[in-house]
Write a structure and sequence with these properties.
By secondary structure, the protein is an alpha/beta fold. The longest helix is centred in the N-terminal third of the chain and has 27 residues. The protein has 22 helices and 5 strands. The radius of gyration is 25 Å and the shape is globular. It has 2 domains: 376 residues, no CATH class; 106 residues. Helix 5 packs parallel to helix 8. It is 59% helix and 6% strand. Strands 2-1-3-5-4 form a 5-stranded mixed sheet, with helices on one face.
Length: 499
């Protein structure tokens, strides 16, 4: 028994790493491909085969780094959804590593480091997004690595730490434009250090100048792109406008606050108790200067709640990560008798997380009924849901073996099922199955005699009953309904003779 205890003490991070991969890889593909996942994997797939340039995603105001990573994963894994989600899983492990490193720099005892890692692994918001091919896990890890080197700089005042911090913030911006929210706390951090540490003022001032010079120089390849302005003009649609009538503005603000309350209550549950303890009673007991920095870096989260048109869990996930350190500080600050009870409270997030990974479909269904504020209905119903899409793709794949050449038509649009079809079937020019756009807005009617559908089998995949103006050429074969029983993905077959 003592040997087991000694092994656990010595190799605790190895065991937590195993727990991390267990919670992220188990049933990884159970949740069908979500709308945004389909779009991102489609872009990455087109990058891989050279159909679009590297910065193609800028047309939608999105920097390309996440899609570049997926495009590389697609070279290794045949299943596009698996490739996209594994990027998030392994990037999430990088997040676990940097959480450990930050905690070791901040907490005096190993318990604080252990708790930060456990809080991250068991938090339902991170188990949910670390298992999807979305930008948030990538953004989270780069923000944390940038923060880590800033912490290291505050302890040793090394220029190389400043350079690395600026580099990782740059990578975060190359992933998602919302990384810019962190510039505010970083400016305030340098101002704070400048006034509280007079002995190192020259170093701090020069380091601040160096930081922003490095950041701007590394950002140049992105900002010099012709479509770079779309990063700002396309993303302002998510922000509140000051031109709104006061009553409307106030209503949106109240809705954001109410929804944020529900989001934090569900996703962070008992962690909030530790947060309150840290905030109210124990802030000065565990390296208060570093803890003040954690509060400072939660400022983007507050700004986001007050400036977004609609708050959601994806927006808050990368910036809520700093809350975990404060929660761990609150936990370690209580006396030993209470601490034992607090360890038992971790059963709550553990049960939620394991329910989520064991049966994601039931998890979402339950929350849609009992906790609609979380907004998870988009994963189950409507065109954004992947339900029906997966079944349609499986059906189309079953047709592949029976034809030497097969064409799949979709309308000109992004999302489900159009992007999913492109992600799964768009390959090199020698592919058996060839997806293509089949839309009256793009193709001149009537169709010519040499149209591919007159030569090879041709199927059309629809979003509900939207046939892109090609109704007279299409005959329904199958419908795959979403859980709401209303929305569906349709499979249609091309027939030249249909009038």
């Amino acid at each position: 028994m003592p040997q087991i205890v000694e092994f656990l003490k010595k190799h605790w991070f190895l065991l937590l790493s195993f727990l991390y991969f267990l919670t992220r890889l188990f049933n990884l593909l159970t949740l069908p491909i979500f709308n945004d996942e389909a779009i991102y994997i489609d872009w990455a797939n087109k990058m891989r085969f050279g159909y679009v340039p590297t910065f193609y995603s800028l047309y939608d105001g999105k920097p390309p780094l996440h899609f570049i990573l997926i495009s590389q994963a697609l070279k290794v894994f045949a299943n596009p959804l698996l490739a996209g989600r594994l990027v998030s899983v392994f990037i999430g492990f990088s997040t676990l590593i940097v959480l450990k490193k930050i905690s070791e720099a901040v907490f005096d005892k190993r318990e604080g480091v252990f708790l930060v890692c456990v809080f991250y692994i068991l938090s339902p918001i991170y188990t949910f997004f670390d298992r999807q091919a979305l930008q948030e896990p990538v953004l989270t890890t780069f923000l944390l690595w940038s923060f880590y080197f800033l912490i290291k700089y505050s302890q040793k005042f090394r220029v190389k730490d400043i350079i690395f911090s600026a580099l990782f913030l740059n990578l975060a911006f190359f992933t998602k434009a919302s990384a810019a929210y962190l510039l505010g706390p970083i400016c305030l951090y340098f101002i704070y250090k400048f006034f509280v540490d007079p002995k190192n003022r020259n170093n701090i001032f020069l380091s601040a100048v160096c930081y922003f010079c490095v950041f701007i120089c590394l950002l140049a390849p992105l900002m010099l792109q012709e479509q770079a302005h779309l990063i700002f003009t396309r993303n302002d649609r998510y922000l509140l406008s000051l031109n709104l009538p006061p009553a409307v503005f106030l209503k949106i603000l109240i809705d954001n606050l109410v929804k944020s309350f529900h989001l934090f209550l569900w996703y962070f549950n008992v962690y909030l108790l530790f947060f309150v303890i840290s905030l109210v009673s124990f802030l000065r007991k565990v390296r208060s200067s570093e803890l003040k920095i954690f509060f400072l870096f939660m400022l983007p989260l507050i700004i986001m709640i007050f400036t977004s048109k609609e708050i959601n869990d994806r927006y808050i996930a990368p910036f809520s990560i700093f809350l975990i350190f404060i929660c761990a500080a609150g936990f370690t600050a209580v006396n030993n008798s209470l601490r034992i009870f607090f360890y038992f409270t971790l059963i709550v997030p553990a049960l939620i997380t394991f329910f989520q990974i064991i049966n994601i479909n039931s998890y979402i269904s339950l929350l849609n009924k009992s906790y609609p504020h979380l907004g998870l209905s988009i994963y189950q119903n409507g065109f954004t849901s992947g339900y029906g899409v997966t079944h349609a793709i499986t059906y189309l794949q079953s047709l592949e073996s029976s034809h030497r050449k097969l064409y799949l038509g979709v309308r000109v649009d992004a999302g489900n099922p159009e992007s999913a079809v492109m992600a799964y079937f768009l390959k090199d020019k020698k592919a058996t199955v060839v997806p293509m756009y089949f839309d009256a807005r793009l193709i001149k009617l009537p169709l010519p005699d040499d149209f591919v559908g007159n030569i090879y089998p041709f199927y059309f995949i629809s979003r509900d009953d939207n046939l892109a103006g090609m109704d007279k050429y299409l005959t329904l074969v199958k419908k795959f309904f979403k859980p709401d029983g209303v929305s569906f993905v349709g499979i249609y077959k091309y027939q030249k003779s249909k009038s």
